[in-house]
Amino acid sequence: MANRRQFLTGLLAAGLVPRPTWADAGSPAYLAAAARPDGSYALCGLGAGRDVLFQIHLPDRGHAAAAHPTRPEAVAFARRPGTFAIVLDCRSGAQTAILSAPEGRHFYGHGAFSADGHWLYTTENDYEAGEGRIGVWDATRDYARADEFASGGVGPHDIKRLPGSDVLVVANGGIETHPDTGRTKLNIPVMAPNLTYVADGQVVDTAELGREWYKNSIRHLAVAPDGLVAFGMQWEGADGPVPVVGLHRRGEEAVLLDASDEAMRQMQGYVGSIALDAQASKVAVTSPRGGVVQVFDVAARRLDHTIVATDASGIAPGKSGFVATSGLGAFWALDANETPADSRHDLAWDNHLVPISNPA
Fold first, then answer.
1. Where are the domains of the chain?
2. pTM of this prediction?
3. Domain spanning 20-355 has what CATH number?
4. pLDDT tens sequence across 233-256
5. Can you tell me the distance from the alpha carbon of 203 to that of 172, in angstroms, rounded to the nearest whole number?
6. CA distance 178 to 198
7. Which of 122, 139, 18, 14 is nearest to 73 (CA)?
């Protein structure tokens, strides 16, 4: 097997064998984890026409995934706090590698590739130290662990790469946990959520919310082509209603987006997923707790409209506007006069709908 792999690698390096692309896996537009009717789990490739192109078995419930920028390969992450991530060949469905969190760590369910696909970055919890770490894995060497660096905060959840660069933006939720206490949140009175920007393993910029919002855990991210970052939050306070959607651009202050008290109550203090449309003129968020999708106007910095959708889960940019999924199997276009009931699959979608930015 090693000799065959070396032989094929040599042919690829010489340009004698076409390199596989996402087109070889059916040109999926999105990835999403799901539960099947029989209770098993899968990572699915979804087409732009909202059809299911493939289902690859997962050993347990998945959360999000990272799509390799050029080859048809995905890393599926366990639902947090998880200690494994699985590398999948999306052409064959084969499992090609397993990433195991180092001792004393667990993953947070998200990862991002470098622009050239050489490195995978994973958000991790060093739970004895109570610090966030970013793991670095070499995708050219069967995802061997290569390095790690500080996330610049506590409880890093989502991570994205700024377009046109290898600068990473990290959502440090500020919540400390430990496996001995399961998902119990250990530091709510002294939470300190932030956004950090990391280049070459060093934090180069940090954005924090005002002190009155210290219980607003920054969880999920979407990034526009010009570097605008949209972030969704999870409110850990007892009072409300509170804003749970914000915007940030490097060098500027973070801005929380406005909505009526009733609209904020509908979110129930929880953003499950977030996306910017292709023009970065709208930002959409889901709340599975509240059973709604809310769409905000970026320029006006306030809520545009709300869509009722039971167990709304994933959200992503579509051909125009957004597409969304739900835990009841819906996968629908928000701007096509559809309702979630118009497009259902026999799959219960998990929280995230991950765009594949370069499917060709």
1. 20-355
2. 0.92
3. 2.130.10.10
4. 999 988 779 999 999 999 999 999
5. 12
6. 25
7. 139
